[in-house]
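Please, structure for the following, as tokens.
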Amino acid sequence: MSVLIETSLGDIVIDLLTKERPRASLNFLKLCKLKMYNFCLFHNVQRNFMIQSGNIDEKGGSSVFRILYGEQAKFFEREAAPKIKHTEKYTVSMVNDGNGFHGSQFLITTVDNADTLDDLHTVFGRVAEGSDTVTQINEVYCDGDGRPFQDIRINHTVILHDPFEDPGVLPIPPRSPSPPPHVIDSDRLIVGEQVNELAGQTTEEMLDYIEEKELKANTQMLEIIGDIPDADVKPPEDVLFVCKLNPVTTSDDLEIIFSRFGPIESCEVIRDWQTGDSLCYAFVEFEQVADCETAYFKMDNVLIDERRIHVDFSQSVSKLYWNRNSKNQMRYNGVPDRNAKGEVPSRGRPREERSRDQQPPRGEMDRFNPRDRQRDGSNYRSRGKSNDRPRGRSRDRSREKSPDRQTDRRNLPEGRSRGNERRTREDRRDRDGRKTMNERRVD
């Protein structure tokens, strides 16, 4: 009651439900005995759902009864009782032709609770061994129709136990048949076939192919880490990269020099964001690509501020990145040049600065001290507003034990605090003739 199926990826052993599904089991066993499943293709693979095979004539398949009784017995009626559902993984079923009949095609589920197959396809067995082979077939790459790009076929079938007698005279072959021509001339890859992408190419073509492949891999890595917005992004064609500049050269100087070739959209000398010193390279963006190409040929190795500069087309896409993610902020690597006042713009949000005359009085600053909230119950976050929350018992007890804590700093004179008041009392005692702490230590 078991059948061994040898596939291109491994062996699968199927245990048949001969008592529950005698007709479907008889059909499957006799087709295996006649070697009808040899070289059958797994033509439909739905990942994490099912794999399908058994199309023995490439026309939808047929049952063993067609060999015995003719064309009118090409299909047989499905067995509905007893009702068996596709609740378990690796369940084997006969495929319905759409009219409630079965032929030779079968499927193996690769997921639990495939209830959409119930009452449609007849369960007649389960995979006893070779579940790893079924998993390999389930994970192969397929086209849009579910057919694997690499041919996976049934090479041979072996009946381990057959409880049924042969119905009539079956033409049992003495040996396994040879593969038909359509199997040999398949347009798909054969299992184990190695694809050499560099076959028939010259050395230069091979080097170009390898270089392009490495460049694509590096570009994808830059996209993953976030250095570029997209792997297919290209640098702008109207931006020049100027390097080997003199540190005294400014953006205005370069803009005047390069503007002779055409209108300039922007010109920036990149500077250090902390010190503001020039990093000796810049980006010049033209409005027209033709003007940019003319400046590239004319300005390379030109002497500017006693330095011979080097000009090349920019390969940076940081400007495109900022345009895409930072609301059209045009910025290259580094920070912008000095502004009209000669100051380097600070990175991030500017910090507000106050002079001593603009600082709030001492009493106003102490008014919003968090410790005041513990003394008088005011909410310092609401800046003087009353706090409607009830006071805790522990807070009241602490005030009873130390009533001097109820003194509010706002009641002290301006410029006075508890520390200042304490030191004033000590100075008063010293003036009365008492010795200070340091004098007592000396004694």
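The longest strand covers residues 101-109. Residues 224 and 231 are 9 Å apart (CA to CA).
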